[in-house]
Amino acid sequence: MFSRVARRKFYNTVFVGFCVLATVVAIGALTLILWSLLHKGLAGVDANLFLADTKSSCQGDSSCAPGGLRNAFIGSAMMLAIAMFIALAVGILAGTWLSEFGGETPYGHAIRFLNDVLLSAPSILIGVAVWELLVVPFHGYSAMAGAVALAFLAAPVVTRTTEDILAMQSSALREAGSALGTPQWIVVRKIVWKAAGGGLLTGGLLAFARISGETAPLLFTSLGNNLFSLDPFAPIASLPKVIYDNALSPYDDLVQIAWAGALVIAVVVLAINILGRILAREPKRS
Amino acid sequence: MFKKLAVALAATLCAGVAVAAVAETLTGAGATFPQPVYQKWAEAYKATGTGINYQGIGSGGGIKQIEAGTVDFGASDKPLHGSDLTANGLYQFPTVIGGIVPAVNIPGVGNEQLKLTGPVLAEIYLGNIKVWNDSRIARLNPGLRLPAIPITTVHRSDGSGTNFLFTSYLSGLSPQFAHTVGASDSVQWPGGLGGKGNPGVAAFVQKTVGSIGYVEYIYARANHIPATLVASRQGTYPKPTAANFAAAAAGANWAGSDHNFVLLLNQPGANSWPITGATFILVHKNQTNAATCRAVLKFFDWAYKNGDGAAAQLDYVPLPLALKNQVRHQWTTEVHAGGRPCFP
Amino acid sequence: MTIETTQTPEPARMSRRIPMGAAFNPIFRWVCASAATLLLASLGWVMVSLFIGGLPAFRKFGFSFITNVTWNPVTEVYGGAGPIVGTLITAALSLAFALPVAIGIAVFLVEFCPRRIARPIAVVVELLAGIPSIVYGMWGLFVFAPFFAKYVQLPLMLSIPPDSWLGKFTQGVPNGANIFTASVILAIMILPYMAAVFRELFLTVPPHLRESSFALGATPLETITKVVMPFVSRGSIGVIMLGLGRALGETMAVTFVIGNTHAFPKSLFDSGSTIASTIANEFAEATGAMHTSALLALGFVLFVITFTVLAIARGLLSSQRYQ
Fold first, then answer.
1. C50 and C303 in contact (C-beta within 8 Å)?
2. Which of residues 4-43 of C touch A (CB under 8 A)?
3. Element (H, E) at B280
4. Is the predicted ipTM greater than 0.90, yes or no?
5. What is the rounded distance in angstroms from the CA atom of residue C175 to the CA atom of residue B209?
6. How many CB atoms neighbour CB B290 within 10 A?
7. pTM confidence score
8. Rounded CA gap, A162 and A188, in Å?
9. pLDDT tens per residue, range C138-153
10. Which of A80, A97, B209, C221 fits a disulfide with C32 by CB distance 3.0 to 4.6 angstroms?
11. C231 Cβ partners below 8 Å, 6+ apart?
């Protein structure tokens, strides 16, 4: 028979062991996937990948110049920038409203509920809804429609994380601000948002990560484009769609480009993640 | 951070509007099967000053998009019936040909060794033939040692032109298959595994001992999966090659067809590969923009004239010349813009 | 113990004291409220357009749409029972795999891990959220499924008699294309989200709470279960919804490894399908009006499932909180 203390110690050791094991297992699985990416993608990463536009396979044609992903990078960057701009603006304000103002009203409950339900929407259905809203009435696909579809996917994530993080901020913070006579809207902006900065950023980065690899909502909205385009009101290429097409193609050179593209998305998400954290830390130092 | 983002965004937008709309660009969407060759043609055609943007979103997608008027031309692996075309004011024509190949993973059976017939294939996919050493298979393969392992059938899970052709072929030869499964781009399979796309089917066949699947010819070749031979209408066993796909197309009766609704399945001729199909382009019969209408047909006219080499390099089969000329003639009578023909 | 954190000061009383800046209070409030309304409107649009799109299928098949296992595009008879059950099983399994691991990672990063290592690990975990789902799908199809078939499924099949109760879980063609593999892939996909937000939540727990607990002699385990978890309980429902949402709605990756059969799965190692994978498989090619409608109706059913799960989660949580 163990004593009470020994039993508590034992359970705790098991718990700590589990936590370490969980981390090791997760990191292990994730490293395996990253390794596949590096192993299969790295060979395809060269200057040409960033300088040439998407092309068809070079199979059976030795004189053919291999394609790259330039138009897809530009297209994805453009749509992601617009989508994140919309999603952050709407998501943070809506999340703030839910946390600070109307979250406990019936209307607030309705919004929170619908937001949570929409988190699980299969992305292809979001694409179909935006197709009906923006593509059919304007008789054409556009980068804008693609960006809106991505924003539809990102905004619920931002709203959800914003509300959670703001609600977690201690009420002492708010009360301290208000006690100094600061109006509530300044309390929210200068104190609550600032204190929650890291959390808000995590929300934004998760939303970004969530939409940066999405193919399905773009099929019916931005369509894709083999040609280089910067027109927000015309079809535009996107990295996930090109990766999808190429990964399923029978030609080795295109499959290679697909893996290289997937590797680049992962690296960009990593870079933006690190950059975002550096940017978020800056104000605290000054 | 938001300010920086906003500035970057505004800059992107301004740059975008400034560069936009330099050259004429046509947009097409639909079947994924011909996407590589359409893209190859588009790249070569860019020199003429017209950009073609073709995107594979699925045959059904291509049909829906041309009906909704969101693209300049649609593409489908599955031809539409005359009544459907008339109802939506559409016209269709074929571009290239491909073949579907049953592929197997049976220990001791190599490429192009196993012989099957359409009815036996149907029995396998219906689940009526459960093991590889079944007498109905053994009778067709007297010299081959078939193991007593169970059969796992693999099919396409995503609705596709490949599914449509394969199920149409089996339905045509097996009344039971036609009755219980039927012919469509998505069907309810009695059993087996569904793989996503051709690579999904190929991967399951490669990894499941005793399995059989059907893939587009290019994928069987690229993945080195043993293909089977399938009996032609004459009872011969032609090999799955480009020449034999072309043989199936040559024998078909296009002239007497209903709005080019032609399936190249089980065609007469000792060399005709029995599971062959053409892929199609869809355009509106009466268009408002004469320039776009003309540009689309001009592109495919160019492709008929100059695109055969590129198609062959990517393992597609070009159309016979007589068929091309027949389609060209249809363009002059079938497709109009503002009441006048768009071609030539 | 639970701490109330969402008390906001009375705006009316404050505005009397500082009239200048306070004038903007209603404007700010209005801006936030309209953002929330915009969100509601756009998300409402998605649901309404889905419902209208699915209406013909609901009308034609009625209740049998969710009880019938026949999904036959040729005869145009649609019943979504197979994908619905598949969705529930995969979502529950993947959550069961991912939730403890995500909490484990977050606890490890916040409580035990040296700061210098915690940062990079957190970044690596978040990075995985950005890998396109097709990469997970291909990885699952070409790497994980064959591995699973060879080293897990086959030995299990050979050692467990198929008629035993355990055999009911393990029968199936040993090629790795089954509900279990799909759940594992899903778990790996939702793990980064859940771990990242859990970590963020744990970091919001005031240090003095944790320290008081330790000062009373509580072990880390007791501190986590009795102090930290109750403090973040409201947020953790959000995390679970985030993970569940992704698991329910994921299309590409699942499609590659689940085997895509529209029947009731007979065991954990049998192939099946989910609502999202069915939509992803068939929507792009569906041309018949009833086929499209049935797929949209299936999408609407997915929302109803989420709705129910969410309502239950809320109910459980609120009863726990007010005890």
1. yes
2. 4-9, 11, 14-15, 17-18, 21-22, 24-25, 27-29, 31-33, 35-40, 42-43
3. strand B276-284
4. no
5. 9
6. 15
7. 0.82
8. 12
9. 788 888 888 888 888 8
10. A97
11. C2, C3, C205, C209
